Amino acid sequence: MKRLTKEENSWIFYDWANSAYSIIISTAVFPLFYKAAATDAGVSASNSTAYLGYTIAIATFILAMLGPILGTIADYQGFKKRFFTFFFGLGVTFTALLAFIPSDNWLLLLVVYTVAAVGSAGANVFYDAFLVDVTTEERMNRISARGYGFGYIGSTIPFIISIAIIILAQSEIIPITTAIASKTAFLITAVWWGLFTIPMFRNVQQRHYIEREPKPISNSFKRLGNTLKEIRKYRALFLFLLAYFFYIDGVGTIITMSTAYGTDLGISSTNLLIILFVTQVVAGPFAILYGRLAEKFTGKKMLYVGIIVYIIVCIYAYFLETTMNFWILAMLVATSQGGIQALSRAYFAKLVPKKKANEFFGFYNIFGKFASIMGPLLVAVTAQLTGNSSSGVFSLIVLFIIGIVILAFVPEPKGELPDSEGLKTV
């Protein structure tokens, strides 16, 4: 593979920048900080968890609805960067604002968190769509995988710094409270995110676009309507989205519910944080490896490999008993979670008409967001019916099997129709 271009490197670095938000705000520090704040305010554990769940659902719904609409508008020349900048600014600003909310105001924390989540997820819609602008189809698998790989690796740096500050505060080695230490982590996230996005702003430009025309907003709605009416012309693309909906649901559920599952097995919070950290470290190089192997064996075959690994994960989870078993499970997940996400993004980018990339990545966002509903529900219902969390995780095997079967009917992308057609041939 030729040396990475300036545009490719700059695009990759945004994954390095934004992944700090994913682990510190979405996964680790903020949920614990919020739970402590809600508890101190007299909110029961079950209610505080429910309120956080409602908040995530609201943010998810907002982005799922806005994605295709804003994406369609962003396909016009010059709009993609503007939308990316807006949502990026929203995310960074409100992430930083979390540090200035009084620790006892749990409701305001959730409001600010909702806006930050919308900003982060919204920026990712347009960031993903920029993949078609920064590289060629032949290099998409590796560039997308390298983005995820660098994201996993990069996120560990602010995560380590943040956790170190919190632990030192808890041990009274440094003269600050745990709440202030957590707020410092929010500021670290915002600074890290903003600093490493600078190359993206400087070097990445929209190369594929639709020429501007009068009444862009109303015309965007017309184009979106036409796309929905002509779904049969995009059969391969929407067939892939259907497969993606099922298998990415399984992937996302295992990621988001792993901590709760580990707790049910009796694993301590300290061990869970360590396992989470090591998983991030291992996932980085494996995501890059998936990209390289995809160039040799095709992205579709490596997606098969990733899904099969997750099927093995579901089976193994059923027999879990010890902390060592959980470590093995986490490492299995780490080998494939970044790779399957990266190659899905690249595969989709190859299928979409480049001039309508934002519109279609809006649909990609919808399928990804709504996919996060069915998996947790399946785990919850199965676990309640059987009285066993392991059975709940095992039930996810259904999603991976459906996903891999549908994926088998999706043809490999083979190039683009003329611009006047605006479609991909498959």
TrEMBL record:
Residue intervals passing through the bilayer: 12-34, 54-76, 83-101, 107-127, 148-167, 173-198, 236-260, 272-290, 302-320, 326-348, 360-381, 393-410
Subcellular location(s) per record: Cell membrane
UniProt keyword annotations, A-Z: Membrane, Transmembrane, Transmembrane helix, Transport
Keyword rRNA-binding: no
Membrane topology: Multi-pass membrane protein
Main location: membrane
SUPFAM superfamilies named in the record: MFS general substrate transporter
Pfam family, one: ATG22
Record-linked InterPro entries: Atg22-like (IPR024671), ATG22/LtaA_families (IPR050495), MFS_dom (IPR020846), MFS_trans_sf (IPR036259)
Keyword Nucleotide-binding among UniProt keywords: no
Domain Major facilitator superfamily (MFS) profile residue range list: 236-426
Domain of life: Bacteria
Protein name according to UniProt: MFS transporter
Gene source species: Metabacillus herbersteinensis
